[in-house]
Amino acid sequence: MLTVVAGVLALLCLGGVIAGYVLYNRAAAPDRSTPDVAVVNYLQAALVSRDPSRAKLFTCDGTVSAIDELAAQIARREQELGVSFSINIENVAVSNTAAADASVIAVIRRSASIDGVHQSLADTWRFDVRDRDGWRVCASMRIS
Fold first, then answer.
1. 124: closest CA among 102, 109, 103?
2. How far apart are CA 130 and CA 45, in angstroms?
3. Contact between 104 and 35 (Cβ < 8 Å)
4. CA-to-CA distance for 20 and 63, rounded, in angstroms?
5. How do residues 11-65 score in pLDDT, each as one tens digit?
6. CA nearest 121: which of 80, 84, 88, 92?
7. Mean pLDDT of the region 75-89
8. 61 touches 129 (CB < 8 A)
């Protein structure tokens, strides 16, 4: 009887471990389900969270040089002005969608309060994304 109870408990524990592993993988996996979601998640990681390791999960080749340059520019300006910028990603729209390629347009807004005056600067960007086991950002360009 004791062996049967121990066997059932072992199976329940094993089932719980497997369920926990599956749920954790689903929660921790980056969401690259659509081109616009991949771009927003990439920008959140690269510019808002400033987590290059997480940002790489949303790229084709590990870096997107134009956004890396923007992140460095933001960091320099924050240091020069002694402020912290708020970054917002706005007006995200997918265009030119093909089976495995798409373009995404997004506005990146940088805002800060400098000497008591709220200031904001917005630029429109185009992102080239490809479906490589989920959508990934391959290139970007400031278009205005």
1. 109
2. 18
3. yes
4. 32
5. 888 877 777 665 555 556 789 999 999 999 999 999 999 999 999 999 998 889 9
6. 88
7. 95
8. no
Residue type, 40: V
Q: What sign has the CA pseudo-torsion 28, 132, 138, 104?
A: negative
The full length of the chain comes to 144
CB distance 31 to 57 below 8 Å: no
Tokens of 61: 């080749």
All residues at 6 or more sequence positions from 81 whose CB lies less than 8 Å from its CB, including other chains: 112, 114
| 57 residue type, one letter | L
Return the ∠ at Cα 15 (arms to 9 and 20), rounded to 5°. 125
